[in-house]
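Structure ticket #2291
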Amino acid sequence: MRSKKRKAKKIKKQVNKIKMILCLVVEAIVILTLVVIIGWNKGIGDWMESLQRPVVRKLEMSGINSPYAVLMQVKGGKIIGNMKGDEKIYPASMTKIMTVIVAIENLDDLDQEITLTQEMFQGLYEQDATQAGFQPGETVRAIDLLYGAMLPSGAECCIALADTVGGSRDGFVELMNKKAQRIGMNGTHFCDTTGLHDPDHYSTVRDIAVLLRYALRNDTFRKIIESPRHSTGVTNLHPSGITYYSTMFKNLSDPSVTGGKILGGKTGYTSEAGLCLASFAEIYDREYILVTAGASGNTGSPLHVKDAVTIYNRLGKAIEAQMTGSDGSES
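Resolution: structure written out below.
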């Protein structure tokens, strides 16, 4: 009888030990799962994406009008084409990518109504700044100002957003520079929201690619930059609203390229910056960013857009070559 009790006690201890081990295993799995989830949100996802090898490892960038160019794979952020990518450039209106994403992230309500004041227009006419078409005293929804800054490159829209979000233009520019540092734009310094020339307002094509890749994660930003046109709501000065058009799509009659199409972009131009373009395309089910700067020409010239078509077509053909068994590099 005593032997049976000892045996039962021993079995009970073994069962309890197994239960304890199972509990520890379950706890370890739960902790590991939480670590992976939290870590993914804090950047491990990007790190794992960066390990993914691009289909094309390297693409030749010469033979275009722009002396500065970077081609980046959106997923992972790998640079697969680079021509003076880290040299200083003037970003001109590519600056407005930062203006728009900072405004989106700091506005509580995109339907908020903002009244443009006379002071917001001071200096714009004298500097021949591009405008979307709003007037002093006009009350406009924030979302229409965002489209106005991105598509027709409206300087008055940038200033209205800056004053509303940052309390002043200087306050907003401080937010822009903080964001630039936070996302790794180490060769960039902003002085204003519009990109009008200032010797101390500079960037690199690599930094602008980093910026666009960051901004494309925001659904509102992506919807705006992919739009060829936008019609505003009714305002107190425009009872029918205003319709404006993307400065990139105006020079791009057909967005198709080999293996895909150009999805969106932001142009820029000053005499000091030359023709600039930050664009992105989907080619064979992967997205790529191309940033070019410094092409000769004036504000109406399409050479920067032609460069984008050239590089994306070259990339598509290189991917096709990879699919058929070449080494994956463009020759």
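Closing remark: DSSP finds eight helices and ten strands in the chain.
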